Amino acid sequence: xxxxxxxxxxxxxCIAFNTFAQKTDYxxxxxxxxxxxxxxxxxxxxxxxxxxxxxxYDLLPAPKGNAPFYFSVNEPDGNYLVTITLGSKNKAxxxxxxxxxRRLFYENIPTNKGEFKTVSFVINKRDTKISDGVYVKIKKRxxxxxxxxxxLTLEFNGEAPCVAAVNIKKVNNVTTLFLCGNSTVxxxxxxxxxxxxxxxxxxxxENICVANYAESGETASTFLAVGRYAKxxxxxxxxxxxxxxxxHNDQKQRGKNAGPYxxxxxxxxxxxxxAREKGATPVFVTPTQRRTFVNGKIKDSHGEYPQAIRNxxxxxxxxxxxxxxxxxxxxEALGEENSVKAFVHxxxxxxxxxxxxxxxxxxxxxxxxxxxxxxxxxxxxRLSLPxxxxxxxxxxxxxxxxxxxxxxFHWNNSPFTEIEKPDGN
Length: 425
Prior knowledge:
Blueprint: H1 3-20, E1 26-30, E2 41-43, E3 55-58, E4 69-74, E5 78-87, E6 93-99, E7 103-111, E8 116-125, E9 129-131, E10 134-135, E11 151-160, E12 163-171, E13 175-181, H2 196-199, E14 208-212, H3 220-225, H4 228-235, E15 241-245, H5 263-277, E16 281-285, E17 293-294, E18 297-298, H6 305-316, E19 319-321, H7 323-334, E20 343-346, E21 358-364, H8 366-382
Parallel strand pairs: 1-2, 8-14, 13-14, 13-15, 15-16, 16-19
Antiparallel strand pairs: 1-12, 3-4, 4-11, 5-8, 5-12, 6-7, 6-11, 9-10, 17-18, 20-21
Helix pairs in contact: 5-6, 7-8
């Protein structure tokens, strides 16, 4: 073939590739507000998300008054540095920022009229594709979960959410904390459910990204079997961490290979092996206690599983966060009566279409999840994990024997609720 023709074809192929390569970095200005760069895409109330533009207001109508709102951008898999200018020249604000399936990043940030504040964080985005023709086998109830779609979605909530500008930039060099587990860890999409995994991002700066792969009802073995961990491995790199909290559902498994020292041990061993192959650091987390009080004390309900985790950790030289013991301390400190305030315990008609009372002693509400996230962070500090250097400056030492006063915790409900209990209850 003629050399000039070969060069011409190569150049055109390169141009075609770049033309169709998906855009990842964006700058948005809301109604030409302060904080917008001169080349920012102007966002008005007519900017409703569609596949053609790839960005816009989503899930709910465009914002009106002080109502919460969502904004989505079509993005490929990866970690994204999000920088947001909060505030308004027209009114005072109080803004909470969440992302994807209700992960908390900033809460109750006040701005005076005409005042603007900038916040930054890194968020992980993923879809179900592992490789060509291979996908994570998600559950039917996950099909509309924001964690698994092709969009990066931000939720702006609070007493008076005010957003002037949003900048999104793909980043590849941020340490990622992968979370593997069940309904006590998962990003719960809907009120009043919550888990510690979706609260953890709030406490770290933009040097750390939390990628929560947990799902309700999962055991260590099913987590591997449906491809959740295989998907996490596609993004995992040296220097990352893998936290594993299993046991709640594993103890319900039956069969000749069931039990804490058989299939459970084998599965956790595989988690560790694959993480280390990627250059990541595995960390075991013992399961949270259930709210099972007897004479004012928590009665263990996980059998031998917590100890099996500790024993395997010693064998494999894996560090352990003993959340089982910390949550025992937390619940007993709250007391048998007051501890219901950390769980999904609500009288009938508290939420739309809730005809019966909710009384769940396994799953947390936002206040409970927030407390347990702090327990996990204290566990990181006890292990002297390097990532604790990247805790935000407003994080203060926490003692589960002295939990935060519920009155000091302010949570604005997301617009969507769900009465159905998570799998594995």
